[in-house]
Automatic annotation (TrEMBL):
Span of domain HicB-like antitoxin of toxin-antitoxin system: 17-78
Protein name: Type II toxin-antitoxin system HicB family antitoxin
InterPro entries: Arc_rbn_hlx_hlx, HicB-like, Ribbon_hlx_hlx, TA_system_antitoxin, TTHA1013/TTHA0281-like
Source organism superkingdom: Bacteria
Xref: Pfam families: HicB_lk_antitox
Amino acid sequence: MKTLNDYMALPYRLEIVEDQEEGGYVVSYPDLPGCITCGDTIEEAMNNAKDAEKAWIEAALEEGIEINEPDSIENYSGQFKLRIPKTLHRTLALHARKEGISMNQYCVYLLSRNDALLSK
């Protein structure tokens, strides 16, 4: 069983978001559900984040809650297979041809464009 120090040594990804309404910054760890903190400055938020991470892991160990390992980009190949209706396949192929790019490139463009819109 891993100890607090073992988990603290793992490279958990954190997200920093500027709080437009209240001011300051909010920091969360996507792999540690509910582990969130804030600070008036990025530096303060980062210091608070380490404290929050430690407190979250300590509480999880005490309560016997499963602690996720950090997600890694190494876990993803960059490929997936998608079955779509023939009519959609045709439409995508026609749009890609019109743009002078492969259908694969066109689909990556559409996915990234929509992902950027959803991330706002």
